[in-house]
Structure formats: C-alpha cells, structure tokens
Amino acid sequence: MSETITMSETITESGTITENLCFKNQTTDLLPEHHKYLTFLKKVFRHEFRKNWFRRISTNILENGSFRTKAETGIMKAYLENNCSEEIQPIYLYYMDHFLNNNLQEERIWWEVIWENDPILDAICIYITYTSLNKIWLGNTFNITINSVGIEKEQNKYKEELQSFYENHKHSLTEDWKKNLEDNPMLLLLSEDEDEKIVASQAPKMTKFLKKDSKAHYAKLKEYLEVLDVPYIENHLLVAENNYNTNSIWEFRASEWCLIWKWSRYNTLATELGNNKDISATGFYVDTEIIIKMLYNKNIALLNKDEIDLFFVQLWDEAKKVVLPLSIQARDAGINTVLSLWTPSMKEQMLKANRSGSKYVVMVGLMEARNGIFQVRELETWTQEEVKKEELIEYIIEKIGKDTLDFYCPARDLITK
User: I want to staple 248 with a disulfide (CB 3.0 to 4.6 A). Which of 75, 100, 122, 369 is the partner?
Assistant: First the structure.
C-alpha cells in the first residue's frame, strides 16, 4: 500500500525550513507557520466551493465512541439523519477539519455531491482540484489518473478473475499480501513491492468487466474531462479500497511516492449505513500537508498579512494608561499595532520589538506620558524622531502609506432582514 508523506521540517523565524521529509507516524501539533499555509489553502478551496454552490458542513467528532476516521461516512450520516433529501437535490457539501486516518491525525479538505449519479459531477470535483492547484502555482507538478471500478456485480466478477490470475503468482506475493487474495484481491493491484507491481501490470483490467451502463458512465467521465481541458491518464491498477466505492475513481499524484488525493464515487455507502436504498454520491479530499510540502519545495512563500506596523513599549502604569487607548485608536485607523504590556526594562521590550519585525516602535516612559511627546524609531534605519501624541497616528500613516492600512471587519457581513 502507498504511504502518505508529510513534512517534519523545523521552521525558523525567518521562514526557512530544514529538508527533513518523513512518513507520518504520530499525531502532531500545528504551529503558527503551518497554520498560515493551512489557512491559505482553506481560503483557496472555500472560494472555489462557494462559486460551485457548495456549503460547509461539520460532523460529529465521535463516531460509535471513537474519533471520526472517514469524512464521507459522517457526511452521509448527517445527510440521512437530518432529512437533507427534502432540500434541492443534488446537495453540495464541503468539510474542513481534523480526523484520524490509520491512527494518524490529518487535516483534510473534503467535498462531495449527494443524490446524483451523473459523471459530470465526478469531472467537476476533479476540475475544482485541478484548477485550484494551478492557481496556487503548482501546475505541472502532478498527474491525474482515472479508472472505473464499476458496480458491485461487476466488481465481484473481476475479483473472481483476479483470484484465478493470482493463484498462478502466489510465489510472488509477500505474506502480508497473500491474505488479500481471499479478502479483496483488488488490493493486490495497489502493492508497492517491486515484484508484485510487475505481476499487477499483467493482471486483467477492471474495464473489461464493465457492462453497458458502467461503460457509458466511464466514457462520459472522460468526455467531460476533455471538455474541461483536464489532462488525465488511464490506469487500470487504480482500484477501490472500500466496498462501497463504485464507478469513477481518480488519483492525483505528485510522484511515484507522493500520493496527494485518491477517491471515487460511492453510491452504496448509504445502504451500508442502514438506509433502505442506495443514494448516489461522489466526493474528493485533499491532503493539506502534502500541498504545503509542495509549496515549500517550490519556494513559494505567502504574503504576510500579519506584519506589524507599530509597536508600543512603555514603562510603568502611568505610561500604560496613555498608550492603551492610543493603541486602540491606531488599530481603528487601520494600523497593525502591538502593545507590550509587561514592565521589565525598556531594553528588554526593545529586543521584543526588534524580533517582532515591526516597522516602527514608539517608546513611552513617565516623562513622555506626562509631556505628550513620544520617541518614534524606524527599526530598519534605526533613525528616531520626536512626535506629539495627537500627531502620532497621522505620522505613522504617512510613513507606511494609506494603501497598507487594514480595515477588514467580519461584522460588515451582517445585514438587517
């Protein structure tokens, strides 16, 4: 089976990373530098989802007493238990959250369409990912492969054929993989063992077992991808890992060892969850850690929207009482402002201001608090001026430029009905 690669680099304050690529082996903390990229990816995909009528959903963190492991299961359960079938169909949903996969913590972006079996929806899911990767400068860094795994009856016939084929190649299988010969021989095609990969390349193809409807479904998927100008490669070794996977299956892979995403249609999941009939569904997920690693490897940095323009340092309570309301006024004026609220020496606070990356620092002691004249230092040039308290905000705005001011306010999205 292919393993998922993750990054375990040490990220320095300057933004550089050590090239220490490794396999995921434990749950990890997500530090601010990682979250900066993660937030960016969520914005990118959320923008595409919004344009394509997807709405966000969150599912229970616990499933049958354990932490959730499969987003599609939770989403389908939510669909069934909340009478979502009464809404306009198909229903478009997306999900951004943590869950466990093989006891490994992962942050995934997931989306799916429920109720409709039209392969155009599979093509749209693939297209959203393809265009999103191109928009963030990762074009030409991956391949898209597709296949069809048909429906249950066709899969059963195919499994019988695979069992017959592999009976003559048992000597080539490792002990760990021999058990799949009886349980699910389709999994043998996913082996990463070199000898088993050679055998798999000679195995029968699933597409030869497709009947009329499944053949038409697969043919239409390819037609829609061509209409959308999405390049793809057919790969008969791409097969389902779950019993409820049906018809279309696809994979984004950055290299032989780096699987980005793999998913398919799963029309029988609803019945596996106890529903009295199948409900068509198609979905996709992205492994955010892999994308972040790809961005790092291409030296793609993000615009830092959290750069500090103004840093206040002050000594004693009298100075704090002067600086505190002034810092709030600066933020209201669109200046990204930080206030040092501790009381050690001015030297220690200046060291903190220097490490923050701020453009300007305002130093206020007892004398400055009382006479209203502040010392303002530009940290890049280390030049310093005296500025009156009432002129400080306009002085900083003139220095940093009005085009850099930040007036974002989520409350502006509120409206009166």
Answer: 122
Buried b (16+ CB within 10 A) or exposed e, 37-62: bbebbeebbeebbeeeebeebebeee
Model pLDDT for residues 329-350, shown as the tens digit of each residue: 999 999 999 998 776 788 899 9
Reply yes or no on whether the pLDDT at 289 is more than 90. no
Sign of CA dihedral 384, 390, 391, 396: positive
Whether 6 contacts 107, CB under 8 Å: no
Nearest to 189 by CA among 230, 219, 151, 145: 145
Closest CA to 264 of 289, 294, 235, 293: 235
Nearest to 283 by CA among 145, 126, 148: 126
Picking from 248, 72, 61, 70, the residue whose alpha carbon sits closest to that of residue 146 is 248
* DSSP per-residue codes, 121-146: HHHHHHHHHHHHHHHTT-TTS-EEEE
101-117 residue pLDDT tens: 666 677 889 999 999 99
For 349-371, write each residue's pLDDT tens digit.
Answer: 999 999 999 999 999 999 999 99
What are the tens digits of pLDDT across the range 129-187? 999 999 999 998 899 999 999 999 999 999 999 999 999 898 888 888 888 898 899 99
182-198: b or e for each residue (b if 16 or more CB lie within 10 Å)?
eebbbbbbbbeeeebee
Structural domains in the chain, sorted by start: 5-150+210-297 (3.30.930.10), 310-404 (3.40.50.800)
Q: Is the pLDDT of residue 1 over 70?
A: no
Q: Report the relative pairing of strands 91-101 and 55-56 from DSSP bridges.
A: parallel
Backbone angles phi, psi at 277, to 5 degrees: -155, 160
The backbone torsions φ and ψ at residue 251, rounded to the nearest 5 degrees and listed phi first, read -150, 140
Q: Give the whole-angstrom CA distance, residue 72 versus residue 273.
A: 11
What phi and psi, each to the nearest 5 degrees, are found at residue 374?
-105, 155
Report the candidate in 103, 131, 147 with the shortest Cα–Cα distance to residue 264: 147
pTM of the model: 0.84
In 3D space, the residue among 242, 260, 244 whose CA is nearest the CA of residue 252 turns out to be 260
